[in-house]
Amino acid sequence: MIDLASLDNAQITPSSDLRLLVALDALLQTGSVTEAAKRLQLSPSAMSRTLHRIRHTLGDPILARAGRGMVVTPKGVELRERVHVLVREAQVLLSAGDEEDVLSVGRNFALIVDDGYAGVLAPHLASPGRAQAFHFLSEGQGDGKALSEGTADLKIGRIYSSSPELHVENLAYSRFVGVAALGHDFLHDSVDVERFAHASHIDILRNDGVASTVEAALAEHDLRRAVVVTTPQYTSALSMIGRTDLVAVVPEILVGSGSLMAGLGSFELPVPIAPLAIRMAWHPRSDSDPAHTWLRSRIRDVLKSGIGPSARCPEPPQQQGRHGQRQPEEAGAGPARGVVYEGG
C-alpha cells in the first residue's frame, strides 16, 4: 500500500478531498486542462479551479505554458506514476463489492486493440447509462510498456511475446475467410484454388515480419495470388472491397461486425490457413481490481460466445498437410503449415 506521505512535500491531510488526487491524476496523464476535464466529465472552468487548488496544495504549477499548449512540470513528472497508482488503489478499495457496485463506479479504461477489434468489442462493452468509458488505442499508440506504466489497462489481439511481468491469456482462435462484395461470383459459386489465386486480391501487409499465410498455402499448389492492392490494415481492406471485384482474406471474427461488413459477404477459402490466435495481456497489479476483473470477464464472453463459430475454439484446430498428414498447431509459431499464426 502506498502511503499518502509518499507524495513528498504535498500538504495532504486526512480531510483533503480525494477528488483532488483523481483530478491531479487526470491532469498528469493528459497534460491538458481541457482533456482532463473531458476525462472527468467536468467543464474546463471547473477543472481550472481544481488545478488552482492543486497548485496551492502542492506548491507547484503542475502544468506550465509552452507555446500554445502546456507541459507537465518536473515536479509533476516526479509525482505522475505515484499519483496514478494511488488513485488506482483507492478505486479498488472503493469499488470492492458485487458487479452492480463495480459497474456503478465511473472508470475510464484504455484498451490497446489490433486492427478491427474495436468495432467488434465496442457494441458489447458500451451501453447507455453505464459509468465506464472505453478508449481504444491502436497498436502504434500503445504497447507492453503502456501496460507496465499504467497508461493502458489491456492489450487484445496478436501478442507474440511480452515482458515476464505481464499476464497473457489465450482467448480464442479465429479461422480466416474470404470476403467479397455482395454479388461477387465467389459468394454464390464453389471456389477452387485456381479461381481463388487468379482473382484480384487485396493483400494485408502486417508489420509483424511474418510471411503471408495465404501465399504459403497457395505455394502448396504452386500458385500465387494476383495482388493488385496492398494495405497494412484489415479495416481499410474491407472498406476498399465494396463495388469492386476485389477479394481479401480476413479473420472470421471481423465478419461478425456489421459495421465492417456492410455490403460485403464471406466465403470459404479453398486452402487451409492456420487460425489467428487472439490473446489478452495486462499487468498483474490489476488482478484484484474488481472493475478490471469485470472487464476481462466481459471481453472473454464477447470473444467466446458466438462471434463466428471458430472464435469459440478453446484450442487451435489441426490442419491437413500437403500429403494428408495431420499437423498439430503450436501457439507462438509463424505461419507455416499447421501452426497457429498470431498475426492480424
UniProtKB/TrEMBL annotation:
InterPro entries: LysR-type_TF, LysR_HTH_N, LysR_subst-bd, WH-like_DNA-bd_sf, WH_DNA-bd_sf. Signal peptide: none annotated. GO terms for molecular function: DNA binding; DNA-binding transcription factor activity. Keywords: DNA-binding, Transcription, Transcription regulation. Pfam families: HTH_1, LysR_substrate. The keyword Transcription applies. Residues 17-73 form the HTH lysR-type domain. Residues 306-344 are annotated as: Disordered. It comes from the Bacteria. PANTHER family: HTH-TYPE TRANSCRIPTIONAL REGULATOR LEUO-RELATED, TRANSCRIPTIONAL REGULATORY PROTEIN. Belongs to the LysR transcriptional regulatory family. This is LysR family transcriptional regulator. It comes from Streptomyces daliensis.
